[in-house]
Amino acid sequence: MRAARQALGAERRSDLNAALLAHLAAFLRGFDRPPQTVAAYVPVGAEPGGRLLIEVLQGEAERILLPVSRPDGTLLWGEFSGPTSLVPAVFGTLEPPVPHWGTEVLDQCAALIVPAAGISSSGVRIGHGGGYYDRTLAAVRASARHRGVSAPVTVGLVYASEFGVAVPAAPHDARVDVVVTERGACDLRAG
Length: 191
Hints:
25% of the residues lie in helices and 21% in strands. It is α/β, with parallel strands linked by helices.
């Protein structure tokens, strides 16, 4: 999957990302009220969304939370305060400087936008093998159940060729609610 993504080439990925980001923005505009807070990620290399993902999200939400990878396999979250504020981190990623918060800060989010290498037609996502997002999404959903509220909508970003693919599934794999590709948004909650 990674090799196929790389083989698309920079120009093709740029075109795909422009369409994907337009569909993501339209999806977020479809909420009952504009989302105040969304959580996302800073795409690395050939990841969908590209360098404009955060910029597009700035036009759709008041606050953006970004992940901070910890050595213990968990994610903390910090607030995006501009592209020059991001600092280099593990795995070649960029992350926000302190302060950082635990998963509980995601309770404030309308949507959690997560990376994936591929997503099955039932919403099972495969990432890069660390399980960071599976643990995070499980914690967010457990917190919402405990509080008797709806969990934030989980949105997976992939290219259309990476959606509906065979993905190994284990009980701990967290499914996404919505998949956004360059062809549109597919809400899996509707069946």
